[in-house]
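Quick one:
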Amino acid sequence: MKRKLLFLVSALIAVGTLALAQSGPLGIAYQFTHTQNMDPTFSPDGKEMIYISVVAGKEQLFRVGLDGKNPLQLTRDDADHEDPAWSPDGKHVAFVLIHEKVEQIHLMDPDGGNVTPLTPKESKTIHPSWSPDSRRVIFCTDDDLAPPKKNDSDILAMDIATHETTKLISGGVNTFPVWSPDGTKLAFRRMLGERNSEVFLANENGSDPKNLTNDPAFDGWPAWSPDGKQIAFASNRRGNHEIFVMNADGSGVRKAANSEGRATSPKWSKDGKKLYFTNCKKVDLGIDCEIYAIDVPR
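Output:
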């Protein structure tokens, strides 16, 4: 009996060894599907966000709670929708609608209804942000008309009721404008060379601009903390683009998190305890962009 059992075990081992010997080398699996989710903006109560997700090659706007479950698609037309910004009073969302080479800021209701143009069709306008009282939208003209070269771009503000427009910053490449929570200051990105971008601070009307970051790297995408005491921004000063935080006067710069890929567009949670940002990285044959969240370093 023992001899038969030993023979059977030996036969099974031989068959297994033969099967392994006959199989070819294992293939290398690679990621085939890719997603792009980016640029969140938060509701006034901080419980929801609207963000961009690429669907069938077009940037569409989605709305979701902070648990990330059951996102609702708000836009469905054959256009790209960028730079969403939820108004502080919760009534409107400003965004850039891009269709047939026209870049125009529009307003819509938070449920995706009542989409109406805000800026003139003939002017290419991007990066909308709101005044604290929700009466004005601040934005800039497109600085990428002939990429990769940058062209001059101005920062303007428009009254949404009257459409009266005021130029706040001009001369050079000025983008990503955001008013402070109390409305007294204006942070924005200014190019000082082909590869040198800085975060600047000015008065709310654009006067007395000052360089806050003063670094030879590419700094930009400023975002005010809810209490107005800090500014988050993205920079490649340590290699890849990462998220940093500084005091509102430019002091106390510190890295917020380690992130593989290209981290940009930071946004604060309404309680000021977290930062959300877009992180894009190459994965096998494509690029993934996802929204990340981190606790703010103290």
